[in-house]
Amino acid sequence: MSYDPSPSYPPPSYRPPYPPPSNRPAPSYPPPPYPSGPHPSPPPYGTHPWQPAGPGPLPDPGPGPGHPGLGEPRAPRRAALGHHSDLRILRSAYRWQRRTATLTALGYFTLFLILSAYAPGFMTGDGAGGLPTGMLLALLQLPVTWLAIGLYEYTARRHVDPLADRIRKEAELDARREAGR
């Protein structure tokens, strides 16, 4: 097989992607409708947080809509939905729940790996039923995983779900109070 350098089809014609330059002068555009120079005066406040304030303090806008005047007392506000301490307690209970279940499963698996690497004599020794100890520990991985799942559900029912239910009920109560206003 040989290479034929002459193409059997006509070569494509080349066209530049843009028209060739002409000798026309550049078009002139009208000036923009906004001032093109620097601002006549800087704003009375810093435009960035690290900049100091301008020449003086900003004027007080006074009481506006939704703001009580000087003599009007504010209505006492109840703690908002999901008070921080409630959510903090819920987060810590959920965190404890995750750690307990995770450390149960991963702790057993890590123990299995460490014994496999550093105690091969123990892992190859005879266990119950003539099976090697390593095989028995490997077969126990599935029940330990089930135990971790059960522990996760138990801690959810005992610690996390009651807190979440209480916060949910408070949210429903707050929603009803807001709808009644």
From TrEMBL:
Q: Which Pfam families match?
A: DUF485 (PF04341)
Is-annotated flag, keyword Membrane?
yes
Question: What InterPro entries does this protein map onto?
Answer: DUF485
Pro residues: compositionally biased ranges: 7-66
Please list every transmembrane segment annotated in the UniProt record, as residue ranges. 100-119, 131-152
Q: What's in the keyword line of the UniProt record?
A: Membrane, Transmembrane, Transmembrane helix
Q: What is this protein called?
A: DUF485 domain-containing protein
Origin organism is Streptomyces griseicoloratus
